[in-house]
Write a structure and sequence with these properties.
The structure is a homodimer of 443-residue chains.
Chain A lengths: L2 H6 L3 E5 L8 H9 L5 E5 L5 E2 L2 E2 L13 E4 L6 H10 L4 E4 L9 H15 L4 E3 L5 E4 L4 E4 L7 E8 L2 H13 L4 E6 L8 H10 L5 E6 L5 H11 L4 E6 L4 H11 L6 H10 L2 E4 L2 H13 L7 E5 L2 H13 L9 H8 L12 E2 L6 H11 L7 E6 L7 H15 L3 E5 L6 H9 L8 H8 L4
Parallel strand pairs in A: 1-2, 1-5, 5-6, 6-7, 10-11, 10-12, 12-13, 13-14, 15-16, 15-17, 17-18
Antiparallel strand pairs in A: 3-4, 8-9, 8-11
Chain lengths: 443, 443
């Protein structure tokens, strides 16, 4: 185990600046950490008892070894506190406190002192000015975000704490699982490249997503990405892409967002997938967790002609092929579908289709290779069996492993079916355009 | 009142083919119509009693005048039934039954007969092969869709019944209000142009949305749009745009989707707004219901730097201007914001902003004209007051009428705030890209 392991999998954690006042960050962090299986030690120079635990006046009073120290005290006190942390030979440290280089000249000077202390030790430091880290597998929340996403395959690195909070809250509501979360803040030590390398070897991580405003060390970032992207998809939303975005980034972080062309070329060279929206960031990662790449040939199955036409448009517009059905497939489907089916791709199984008709088609498709992936469309018509049809799609995926995505369109009438799809790991989207837009990133 | 009025605002309705068997379309239609204030007469040659009402053996047995006849009998019987409808001098008629030109040669012949009967009368006909119509203002549901959207300003015309069902269900779930819904089916008589003209003069309609697969009479359509688009926004999703989409449309409706360039040029000339996705179709209509056009200059207010940068990127990419703040505005805001605010557009009011800081900014903006519209971003941080901030935005909108859109980002933490925004008619989106993409249509 190295410093990065101790950051995400600590057994003994000290919270320096743990507080019994609920409005303080040191309260929220300590409360969150109590939910984990790790042993947590509150350190506070004043408070006697915090959430039922007796506080240590100083880190050095703790007899046990400490794997991770989480610092929540005001910035001016941080250097002194940090000296104790180094003295105690703590393996990893998070400085949550703000008020450093992001806050002007005085803060910049404190950050310099912190840097000097850190450079003399072998301890790894995340921060300062971060939300913290979350490891759902261990129910470990070393941050002041009051929630716990479910366990999943995505590791999420955010350069903005506020955006981190919003997207964690969004992920919980949308039942999206995470392997890890980390906010990087001022990146005095640990930066994107360290985290990408670490998540690259983390067995719980199947895809890595980054929200980036500006890189401190582009070379190291690219090196890490080149290495990791061979085995895991790295997807990036880089803000400050346009002139207006750059101006906004400048007044936000006082950092130059950098030359767009250079970023784009470098991302491409390093095997990084770049997206424009937060939804694409998460959806692409969800798909990438299952399918490393996606081919160009789509097969569309639908119980409605209109949405099938819309889907054909969407996928062709995004550079996919909606090839006509091979003749032998038409013959096979003729035997199981009513006379008025489309006899082509999209396979329109007609509005009165029950789930058995979906099943008949997917049974044929299971043995075929003329397509790279499937889109299954369902609209809730009079005869439609949405739940059963969802199970048919799930069974097809589980049996064949072939990439299949769904658009079960509607509201309450497809609500339960969507849950069934989600339970079986099928990604459902509101409309075909969203699937096409997302899959472009995996071509 | 003309035939179109009797279609959407009938006082006396006969359901021909009303049925007591729940699996029949004639049962669903009759059941739905019983929810309205109109007087509804079941007609069925066999059944004695349907949902507590005694059925008439024939339409001609009804003594009262009939405004609207809804026909649900099998296609081959329709011509005979229709003769009675014409004889009875019914003002408007919906043929819900399928099995006409869309179903092959035999059906085409029946449709021809229906056409001959209709041409001899002054009655207006919707169909055949339609889902029906819905007028939420009158709680009138003359369709086999089992639901009622709330009342609102959008009139929705769909050439696909299945897509109609899906989007009605979606609208109900997403609490989107409709003025009217109509599915047009085979367009033997009433087509897009009739409906657009009618919704053009319907006082409940503030925007018209169309899902189009193929037009029968492009010239009439354009004429109607040219006339109506002067006062109301017409937004169209036209499927069959790409080669693959055209092939799919051909096998779906056996109609040629037509030449794309001609469609595009004609739409533009007729003042029609064309969109690519269903979400854009509805969101653009929602915005158009409030604001006829939107200028290019955006002012962004945010409690988080990252999302503000993302927003700047999104709007600049879509051709909007994120102009630097005028100096006098900076001075005014300096007085009400903390020292570390962005001093520029986006107006970053810093992560610890409570609702009073949003209010201070919007109080300044209320008196200014350097921007055409506002985007207010909120991420749920420790100090954030999402609900109160939502009320601040609503108050700004109600007081000034200036266009303002929001991105309250997150999940459960912004759930209540989103409801407050919706109640006050503020359109909230998950992320800035969605707002920009939608507003492009209103430039």
């Amino acid at each position: 185990m190295d410093g990065m392991d101790f950051l995400f999998k600590p057994e003994r954690i000290a919270v320096i600046g743990a507080s019994r006042f609920p409005e303080k960050v040191g309260y929220e962090v300590f409360k969150n950490l109590l939910q984990s299986d790790s042993k947590v030690y509150p350190v506070n120079i004043n408070d006697g008892e915090i959430l039922g635990k007796t506080a240590y006046k100083s880190l050095l009073e703790i007899e046990d070894e400490i794997d991770l120290a989480v610092i929540c005290v005001p910035a001016p006190i941080v250097p002194d506190v940090l000296k104790d942390v180094v003295k105690k030979k703590v393996k990893a440290c998070i400085i949550i406190s703000a008020g450093f280089s992001e806050a002007g000249e005085a803060g910049r000077k404190i950050e310099e002192k912190v840097g000097q202390i850190i450079r003399k030790s072998s301890m790894r430091l995340l921060g300062p000015n971060v939300l913290g880290i979350i490891n759902p597998t261990l129910k470990l929340n070393a941050s002041f975000f009051d929630g716990m996403p479910k366990q999943g395959g995505i590791s999420f690195i955010s350069q903005s704490g506020a955006l981190g909070v919003a997207m964690l809250d969004w992920a919980i509501k949308n039942d999206i699982g995470l392997a890890n979360f980390a906010s990087v803040g001022n990146m005095l030590d640990i930066d994107f490249s360290d985290l990408i390398e670490y998540f690259g070897r983390d067995e719980n991580t199947s895809a890595i997503i980054c929200y980036i405003e500006a890189l401190k060390d582009g070379r190291e970032f690219m090196k890490a990405c080149k290495k990791v992207s061979r085995s895991k998809r790295i997807i990036v939303l880089k803000a400050g892409r346009t002139a207006a975005g750059k101006r906004a980034a400048l007044s936000h972080t006082a950092s130059l967002a950098g030359d767009e062309d250079i970023y784009s070329a470098a991302f491409k060279q390093a095997g990084v997938t770049r997206v424009n929206t937060l939804k694409e960031l998460f959806n692409t990662a969800l798909a990438a967790s299952k399918f490393k790449t996606i081919g160009r040939n789509i097969c569309i199955v639908s119980n409605a002609g209109g949405p099938a036409v819309i889907a054909s448009d969407a996928f062709e517009r995004h550079g996919f092929n909606v090839e006509p059905l091979p003749k032998d497939i038409v013959k096979k489907l003729d035997k199981v579908l009513p006379a008025n089916w489309s006899e082509n791709n999209p396979i329109d199984i007609i509005g009165d289709a029950k789930s058995d008709r979906y099943k008949a088609v997917f049974d044929v498709l299971a043995a075929e290779n003329f397509f790279d992936f499937c889109l299954c469309i369902l609209t809730p018509q009079a005869m439609t069996q949405a739940d059963e049809s969802a199970r048919v799609v799930a069974e097809f995926y589980e049996k064949t492993g072939k990439p299949v995505f769904t658009c079960f369109m509607g509201g309450n009438k497809v609500e339960d079916a969507k849950k069934i799809l989600k339970e079986h790991g099928i990604l459902n989207f509101d409309e075909p355009e969203e699937v096409a837009q997302m899959l472009v990133n995996l071509k």
